[in-house]
Write a structure and sequence with these properties.
3 copies of one chain form a homotrimer. Chain A is mainly alpha-helical. Chain A folds into 3 domains: about 70 residues, no CATH class; about 120 residues, no CATH class; about 180 residues, Hydroxylamine Oxidoreductase, Chain A, domain 2 (Up-down Bundle). Helices cover about 40% and strands about 10% of the residues of chain A. The first copy, chain A, has 20 helices and 11 strands. Chain A has a 3-stranded mixed β-sheet. In chain A, a hairpin with a 2-residue loop joins strand 1 and strand 2. In chain A, helix 14 crosses helix 15 and helix 19 packs antiparallel against helix 20. The longest helix of chain A is centred in the last third of the chain and has 34 residues. Chain A starts with a helix and ends in a 6-residue tail after the last helix. Chains B and C meet through helix 1, helix 15, helix 18 and helix 20 of B and helix 1, helix 3, helix 9, strand 3 and helix 10 of C.
């Protein structure tokens, strides 16, 4: 009995006794100073798996339990834990932000290319992810770029008309590009006074930033820390919806809010404290009892017998048949993650015509959409019957169609406004985003139709009803019409202003 | 000492050793397949009390600890746990969705009538709950039905005027009726390929749905899983505000948001991880230190000595003197849960006149209101002094009066718009919800006055100030007036549009 | 081995064995009745440190671990725990709400002056905190007072014009003054029937209230329970952002929402269940891995070696260089917590001119701003590099400048509206908040510019982009211009209304 009770105690206490694996001598040297200089992130790192496992240990796990995707150990460093030096001194030659630091060459910005040393499959999938192109897809598309300018720019008043000064890069980095990612470049060096005396550091533009499509000093795109937050790199965090919420919460893309208002979100909020967020693979029913964002869109999920429900993916639209995010209308996902290549018939860089027709050439076809839908439904079917799931997806199809129709009506009013000279648009070679009725039009698809579609997709009906949903779609159309009529009345009195 | 340490260990480890009670042979057979077919919900159910307790055990608890309301054991099945078969094969004859499935007659949609087998008091109270009538109260009331149509319908543009196509049932199921409940009907059968070969299933319309007033295939109304989520049926979940939030969060009824902004919500958010959400009865101060929605509106609460503070109820307005949800004005709760019977003097199916007077005949009287208030105050008084509680309720009374006055002012502007021909309303036999000024009027009472009243009732002042509260009530009146004047200007120029 | 396992058990179980310290006889007598009368708050108090520690114990801790700031024990009561009597009978002579209660003189409203008996430094700092003056700063400033009146007042319609009845004190207590604090006065006495028979109690106006600038019956200002909620007085709660959210969540000051959308908020939401919220001092990296509101603005923070990162402060702007909350423009923090003394050149009681220039005389100078910035940056630097932190603060500077420019543009449109007679403002001796265009102007700075600045300061970009951020600043200017033009059209037709 005595022995047994002791054994039980050992089992109970085991998790407390984490034996530190060996660090590389360089990492040890980093820590010598940084324990004092930046205690917060060192403590974070010490909690991470990176601090507790060597690459060799990680690679020798059974396939389903693996968190790395490298096939075999490639370098001697595989026998030490993944510390400061293992990430920040790995590819110094490719990094323009490399600098001499206490006798070592180190760089500041760790990138997907660096993470690929151990996670090559994930890094590769991510290059196929729209997100990895989020900087260029926004910045290099003239239409979207103009939306950024008219949103973030400074309007001045002169003679009762406004003129626009485009936003500077600091403003953009604080707004759209916080999520889309900034362009990080090295602009010289600077000597700073530190607790260790004077030291020289590179000066970076676009810094700090952890946006999903960041342009990095080594030429790579993206930022793994957008979701796998430094320096704990907690899989628990990546699997919790709060992480996605950083960029998927606003009125343009209220995925998080919709989730919180859904039954899934309700279960999560009420019961997740009992779930296991760190297990790999993630076992449905056992580790979690309702999906989070990650469960549906990214994670490797199995049942308790180890059968794979869905595979892990870092191309986030692998299980998404439709791009609900209207540009201007909801449409099939683009084939290429680089959407700057798209041109519609009217010559605009948009995946749909202004009147709604998809620009099929650049978009995934029906067969691919069907396959993605089937993949997503595998997750649903782990808990729900086929009739439940079919009913759910039929509603989404209906919502995509009806919201697109409501966007079309709003667009027709806008086209009339341009046609009647109440506003200046494409024909006048003017911005399509800078006047009040144009901004109302944007809200129709970017806020209200999007919100309604997300609400339908994730069954968080509030956001398809009164909370930025159908109520606002319906009201906005009446207000656009009224605006147009008021404007025509005003115009006829001989006063035209912008 | 050895023995003592062992005893301590047993106490520590006891909760881990849940001994499974016996399942019925039919349930065992269900699980044989469904463990693989739908592992998520089976795992959920295994965590539930239903899987761990027999009806007999449940019924033999002391009164205050009972979670069932049946007086005595009525059937042999009382000696097995409540599994698949106990719920899905109980009343097959009444269920139009019953179908042959692997040699058994089963049905899909478990209803309040089924739950009543063990929880008859709760099911009965629920039939007196407004919520149980949420489908008909919305759908069968011509005024509210028109609000649904004008909100969810598709507007098309022709000759610079909009025409409305009413929403289809899929759209409505995705919007208002997600919470109110759909009408579930069996429309034929369908053979599906399953992992067990070809099988035939009923085809249901209005499915999936878990709305509170669902019309079920057995003729009953409501859905217990709206709050007691399948298949864990966790009382913890029903007691947490996230559950109510699914339907009480939007701008029309921001109860959850108000709670979160209140001191009660603050205590809950900060400290609830230490609370006991599963104890029956729920002991104030010991199990929880601030009320959740359930504590004030539904739960059985006692003090630590076992004295009842308030009784359990599933007629949610038992402790509510006022219906804060304005239709059009806040008013005493209707006597009958079926509100389609109400008609005001003007012949409209509304509990108040358009000018604010309550339609007293259909509403609870002052005495009943007083009693409900006293019941609610019993909860408050478990922590607060009488003078605190009286101060709180005096403020609510004041807020009901002042918000109703602000609704009246908005209504007068609307009536003027109709009168002056700037909009078409009752006299023109036109919808009262389809024009811009009418939609602004709706927001006055449905969003802003409601929000302000909830804020006052639950002391979450933000929602009575700048967050959809008094600020917007005040602004909206000015905007309604301006709209009317702009419209009259436009109209006088000979252009009348809708 | 046996002994060791026993020792381990003792260590494991130790936290469960809290030995109650001694209560004063008077407190014991209070509890005799109040355990039954108000069981919730008694249970709350029993969980508090006040119930478990004597003043003597509290004062004898090492400096960094101290939660009291009194230098030495001053009174015999230091040997009992801090119970009912220790707070509610301490300064009866100064309290106008003192009354005879079961043979004792007690008062209802415990104030900062009472808390100062043990926490004098905190109470003193708090008198230097803007918050302590929140009642007068709002109520006694004619401009802000008018904002309250026009927001909370009742508008009536007569002859198609609105007239305003100022709000009563109940309405104000339910709205602005819920957070700002009410004025609590004793208006007579009242005999109540209690479970102990008839008893007499003072009648208080402005009660209940826990606003930060409450005017108390002992002449003091503020309410410690606004953040240190009665009767648990949990430091965990004060350190969690939900507490600040009660008043810092609305569209005027969305600090909580911004935090939730930031990386810091993401880390908090995902991982805080593992943090230690009760340790004093609060050790960065060890007790918490991302800052909460308290970490940046109030708490004493050290590293694991006990070096102080930042000192505890209850003057909340000690580490804030800018007052982001625009009145009308963002500006340096006022020198005095009493802002009613401020007058700008135009004679308005505002810290900036209507055209944006700061009223330097009343505001902290650049040197003081720099010092506050340095203090804040000490927190940042516990995890981030200097270049990261400098980049972050450069963005905030940019955002302050650009949002102020957008406020100026909106103001110019308003000035034009007044000038052209489209609205009535300062020159007409009319409210500057009561017309539609004036309310739009208020939203420009109070909602949209504020939101954008908070988003920048705390890196929650959503609220600087589409969520009440730059999108709305930009749209609002166009709508203000349109309103002005529509109004001028209407006016020219000879119909002037307000």
């Amino acid at each position: 009995m005595k022995t047994k009770s002791l054994l039980l105690l050992i089992v109970l206490l085991w998790p407390l006794s984490v034996l530190a694996a060996e660090m590389s001598p360089v990492t040890e040297e980093c820590l010598d100073c940084h324990r004092t200089a930046t205690p917060g992130i060192v403590a974070d790192w010490e909690r991470s798996r990176h601090a507790q496992n060597t690459m060799e240990e990680a690679i020798n796990k059974p396939d389903l339990k693996k968190r790395v995707s490298l096939a075999k150990v490639l370098r001697p460093s595989a026998r030490v834990v993944v510390g400061c030096a293992e990430c920040h001194t790995l590819n110094t030659k490719e990094h323009k932000d490399t600098f001499g630091h206490n006798g070592y060459e180190v760089y500041i910005v760790v990138t997907p290319k660096d993470c690929a040393a151990c996670h090559p499959t994930e890094a590769d999938q991510y290059t196929q992810n729209l997100m990895s192109r989020a900087y260029g897809n926004l910045n290099d598309n003239p239409v979207y770029h103009n939306l950024v300018d008219t949103t973030n720019g400074i309007q001045s008043l002169e003679k009762m008309m406004t003129s626009l000064t485009p936003p500077n890069t600091e403003t953009n980095a604080d707004s759209c590009f916080y999520c889309h990612g900034t362009k990080i470049e090295v602009k010289g060096k600077k000597v700073r006074d530190t607790s260790m005396g004077e030291m020289e550091f590179p000066v970076l533009t676009g810094w700090p930033n952890q946006g999903v499509g960041r342009l990095n000093p080594d030429g790579s795109m993206g930022s793994c820390t957008a979701c796998h937050t430094r320096h704990q790199f907690s899989i628990e965090m990546a699997r919790k919806p709060d992480t996605c919420a950083e960029c998927h919460k606003g009125p343009d893309v209220p995925a998080y809010k919709v989730y919180q208002a859904s039954k899934h979100g309700n279960i999560y909020s009420s019961l997740n404290k009992e779930w296991n967020f760190t297990s790999v693979p993630w076992v449905v029913g056992k580790n979690f009892t309702a999906p989070t964002c990650a469960a549906c869109h990214a994670s490797l999920i199995t049942n308790d017998e180890g059968d794979v429900v869905v595979e892990r993916t870092h191309r986030m639209n692998d299980r998404i048949p439709w791009r609900l995010f209207g540009l201007v209308y909801a449409h099939a996902h683009p084939k290429s993650p680089d959407t700057t290549i798209i041109k519609n018939k009217a010559g605009l860089p948009l995946p749909t015509e202004l009147t709604g027709e998809p620009v099929a050439k650049y978009l995934t076809d029906a067969k691919e959409q069907e396959e993605r839908k089937r993949n997503m439904q595998k997750v649903c079917l782990a808990c729900h019957s086929t009739s439940w799931v079919e009913g759910q997806f039929a509603r989404l199809d209906n919502t995509i169609r009806t919201t697109n129709e409501m966007t079309l009506t709003a667009t027709k009013i806008l086209l009339a406004a341009w046609d009647k000279g109440a506003a200046s648009g494409l024909d006048q070679n003017d911005s399509i985003f800078n006047e009040a009725i144009e901004k109302k039009w944007v809200e129709q698809w970017l806020f209200f139709a999007n919100s309604t579609r997300y609400a339908s997709a994730m069954a968080g009906a509030d956001y398809g009803a009164f909370a930025n949903g159908r109520w606002y779609m319906s009201k906005n159309i009446q207000e656009m019409l009224d605006w147009l009529n008021f404007k025509l009345t005003e115009t006829k009195k001989g006063k035209k202003r912008r």
